[in-house]
């Protein structure tokens, strides 16, 4: 299943998205984007963190499925330009290796609701939560 999702992701990302016309970081909560075709997306820090394009040591592997959990309150500290094609987002959980291309943002924004729905289903399936673990 994961291999199929990765293949689909590569296909969608390889399709040229419309030109980005506006990028706005509303730290720590979200990123707002507008594209030349009129599409506008507001992507939360949690959504971007769980869909980071980077490999991450804070991912839990359950039955071969990679699941990031407990990121409901994660924040964005900053976004650094990477060439002309995207940004590196630095999150307050110190994750900073993901480079988000403008095309990847478009892909995420275009699929935001189905991605969040599937994410919540996966968490429920494994008894996990969007909320961080309580400290003892």
Automatic annotation (TrEMBL):
InterPro entries: GBBH-like_N, GBBH-like_N_sf
Alphabetic keyword roster: Iron, Metal-binding
Domain Gamma-butyrobetaine hydroxylase-like N-terminal: 29-106
Domain of life: Eukaryota
Entry keyword annotation includes Metal-binding: yes
PANTHER family on file: OS02G0197800 PROTEIN
Protein known as: Gamma-butyrobetaine hydroxylase-like N-terminal domain-containing protein
């Amino acid at each position: 299943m994961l291999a199929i999702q990765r293949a689909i992701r590569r296909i969608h990302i390889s399709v040229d998205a419309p030109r980005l016309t506006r990028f706005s970081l509303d730290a720590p909560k979200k990123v707002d984007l507008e594209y030349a075709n009129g599409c506008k997306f507001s992507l939360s820090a949690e959504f971007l963190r769980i869909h980071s394009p980077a490999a991450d040591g804070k991912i839990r592997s359950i039955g071969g499925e990679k699941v990031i959990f407990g990121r409901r309150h994660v924040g964005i500290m900053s976004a650094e330009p990477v060439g002309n094609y995207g940004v590196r987002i630095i999150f307050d959980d110190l994750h900073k290796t993901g480079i988000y291309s403008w095309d990847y943002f478009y892909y995420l924004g275009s699929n935001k609701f189905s991605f969040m729905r599937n994410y919540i289903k996966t968490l429920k399936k494994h008894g996990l939560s969007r909320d961080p673990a309580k400290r003892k």
